[in-house]
């Protein structure tokens, strides 16, 4: 969980799952947008420093250019609209700390977006992104990044993606990852990592170096085993979350999961028995699980819009 004193916005990725009671700072919600579900209206708050245009059929940023004061705007919410792109001059919003573009049709982002000096929360969930721009990992202050429900894979990421050292919550659920690069170890302040409902076949051993991680969501992938190094993570106990279900685990792991859930699995992968088994396991000896039905993205999008 993120620190109690930090009133950060809740990312959408895991929190759309009604099976999980998730807290992020002071927020406790399964609503699809940040702290609370935005009303279908437009708002201007605090002398125009916060702008909300939700479900207004906006297709380009030019439609609201007359409302944006580049010197003062701190929060911009354009969720549930019809945007297909973000303009390069988004970088002019030098005081922006929250940008919510949830549920649009955005296919591309400008490289300039990562130069926003004060941006802490970026929600790009439920769009049509299949690639991220060069330098996307250059955000100087970003703490929460939500890329849930896109078409992103490991091939979509620029080389510096995992070098956002200020990042504390990363939501990559419902995408197309088959593997996670070992560079994830550079996210030294990460507390929440959501990888649910991808096509992950393996996890990197470097994941075990994320000593501040409190939540790991890897349910609904194609995982059969876990690297022994991941057992170093303290993910069992109060204020910890570990989601492992709906993976085609090898029989030994599945047996532990059936007996005692994530806690039993975590104890097992720390055991000498599992370490020995993992050391002798040949990659070719385990059949590659088939990909799952990706229609889930379409159905969930319909639910969110309802």
TrEMBL record:
<dbReference type="InterPro" id="IPR003591">
    <property type="entry name" value="Leu-rich_rpt_typical-subtyp"/>
</dbReference>
<feature type="region of interest" description="Disordered">
    <location>
        <begin position="278"/>
        <end position="306"/>
    </location>
</feature>
<feature type="compositionally biased region" description="Basic residues">
    <location>
        <begin position="291"/>
        <end position="300"/>
    </location>
</feature>
<keyword id="KW-0677">Repeat</keyword>
<dbReference type="GO" id="GO:0005737">
    <property type="term" value="C:cytoplasm"/>
</dbReference>
<dbReference type="InterPro" id="IPR032675">
    <property type="entry name" value="LRR_dom_sf"/>
</dbReference>
<protein>
    <recommendedName>
        <fullName>Ras suppressor protein 1</fullName>
    </recommendedName>
</protein>
<dbReference type="Pfam" id="PF13855">
    <property type="entry name" value="LRR_8"/>
</dbReference>
<dbReference type="InterPro" id="IPR050216">
    <property type="entry name" value="LRR_domain-containing"/>
</dbReference>
<dbReference type="InterPro" id="IPR001611">
    <property type="entry name" value="Leu-rich_rpt"/>
</dbReference>
<keyword id="KW-0433">Leucine-rich repeat</keyword>
């Amino acid at each position: 969980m993120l620190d109690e004193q930090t009133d950060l916005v809740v990312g959408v990725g895991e929190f759309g799952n009604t099976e999980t009671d998730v807290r992020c700072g002071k927020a406790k919600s399964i609503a699809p947008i940040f702290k609370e579900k935005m009303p279908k209206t437009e708002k201007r708050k605090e002398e125009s420093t916060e702008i909300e245009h939700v479900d207004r059929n906006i297709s380009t940023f030019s439609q609201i250019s007359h409302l944006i004061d580049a010197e003062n705007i701190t929060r911009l919410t354009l969720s549930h609209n019809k945007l297909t792109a973000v303009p390069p001059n988004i970088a002019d919003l030098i005081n922006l700390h929250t940008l919510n573009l949830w549920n649009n049709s955005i296919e591309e982002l400008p490289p300039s977006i990562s130069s926003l000096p004060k941006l802490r929360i970026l929600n790009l969930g439920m769009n049509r992104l299949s690639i991220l721009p060069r330098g996307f990992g250059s955000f100087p202050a970003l703490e929460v990044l939500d890329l849930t429900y896109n078409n992103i894979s490991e091939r979509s990421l620029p080389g510096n993606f995992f070098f956002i050292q200020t990042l504390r919550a990363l939501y990559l659920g419902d995408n197309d990852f088959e593997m996670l690069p070992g560079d994830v170890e550079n996210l030294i302040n990460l507390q929440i990592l959501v990888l649910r409902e991808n096509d992950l076949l393996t996890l990197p051993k470097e994941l075990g170096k994320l000593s501040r991680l409190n939540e790991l969501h890897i349910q609904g992938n194609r995982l059969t085993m876990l690297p022994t190094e991941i057992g170093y993570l303290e993910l069992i106990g109060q204020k910890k979350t570990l989601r492992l279900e709906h993976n085609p685990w090898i029989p030994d792991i599945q047996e532990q999961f059936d007996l005692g859930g994530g806690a039993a699995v975590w104890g097992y992968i720390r055991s000498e028995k599992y370490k020995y088994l993992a050391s002798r396991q040949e990659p070719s000896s385990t059949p590659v699980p088939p990909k799952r039905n990706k229609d889930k993205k379409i159905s969930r999008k319909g639910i969110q819009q309802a």
